[in-house]
Amino acid sequence: MPTKTATKSKKAKPQSPQALIASNVHLGPPFAGQGPYPGGAWGIFPAPDGRIVPCPGFWGFSRHFPTTGGIVAQLGAETGTGVAGCALYSGYQYIFKPTVAGEQTFILTLNMGPVSRRPRYGSVQIAGVLQIMGPGGHWADFYEDLPSNTGVTLAIRPRIQAGGIYTLRFGVAPIVNNAGYQSYGEAILNSAELKQYLPYGAQVAQAARPKAEQGGAALNSLLNSVDEQEAQNISLHEAATLGVGYSS
C-alpha cells in the first residue's frame, strides 16, 4: 500500500507533540540499568574492564564509560607473535522485549575521539558495529574503518515482533593482522547516542543508510560472535563509578 508523504502545503498539519514523543525511544545514554523497557538490562562486554588476552599472542585493553557511551579499546600483538590475526569487539548490550511490532529503525551516533593504527607491515582496521538479533533475524550495520575526531552514524531497520526477546549490541572493534612486528590499534569513542524509531515515526527511516555490504572475514566473525562473548549487566550506580557521575 502506498504511503502518504508530507509536503510543505499550508494544508498539511504538523505532528502533535504527543505523536513525536511516541514515535521514538531514547535507548541511551546512559547505557546502564534497566533502560526504557520494563525488564530490560544493559550490559558491557568484554567484562570486566581492564587488560585481557583476546587471542593467543595478543594483548587487549577495554574500558567503558556507560554514562556517556564512551569506550577505550586497545589491541596489540605481543613480542614474538608471528603472522596472526585478532579482533577485540568492545561495547554495550541491551536485552529487552519490545512492546511495538513492525519495521523499526535504530540509529546510532558515534562521536569519535582519536583513532590510532600502527600496522608495522601488517594491517590494522578499526570498525564500528551496530546489530540486533532475535525473532525474525539478525540485522547489522558497520563502519569498516572509523576516522578520528568526527561523528559517524550507523542504522539498522529490523522487523520487530512485539514481546520477543532481542539482543541489541554496538561498539568499536580494533582488528589487527600482525606480520611479526607488534602491530597495534586503538579506538577512543568519546560518546554515543542510540535511538529507536517506531513504525509511526518511520519518516526518520529515510535517513537510514542502505544495508551494509558484507566485509572481511574478521568483521563477519564479529557480527556472528554474540553468543560467544558474554556481557556483564551494569547498574546505574556501577556506571557512575566507571565514568562521569550519572544525573537523572
How many distinct beta strands?
A: 16
Please give the alpha-carbon distance between the first and last residues. 42 Å
Whole-number average pLDDT? 84
Tell me the radius of gyration.
Answer: 19 Å
As residue ranges, the low-confidence spans are: 1-21, 201-213, 244-248
Query: What gross morphology would you assign?
Result: globular
Q: How would you classify the quaternary structure? A: single chain
What does this protein look like?
The chain has 3 helices and 16 strands. It has helices at 17-22, 217-223, 236-242; strands spanning 24-28, 41-45, 50-52, 58-65, 70-77, 83-87, 90-96, 102-103, 105-118, 123-134, 137-143, 151-156, 159-160, 166-179, 184-197, 232-233. A hairpin with a 4-residue loop joins β4 and β5. Residues 1-21, 201-213 and 244-248 have low confidence and may be disordered.
Compact overview of the structure:
The protein is mainly β. It is built from three helices and 16 strands.
Sum up the structure in keywords.
seven-stranded antiparallel β-sheet, 3 helices, 16 strands, mainly beta, 248 residues
Topology of this protein?
Layout: H1 17-22, E1 24-28, E2 41-45, E3 50-52, E4 58-65, E5 70-77, E6 83-87, E7 90-96, E8 102-103, E9 105-118, E10 123-134, E11 137-143, E12 151-156, E13 159-160, E14 166-179, E15 184-197, H2 217-223, E16 232-233, H3 236-242
Antiparallel strand pairs: 1-15, 2-7, 2-16, 3-4, 4-5, 5-15, 6-14, 7-14, 8-13, 9-12, 9-15, 10-11, 10-14
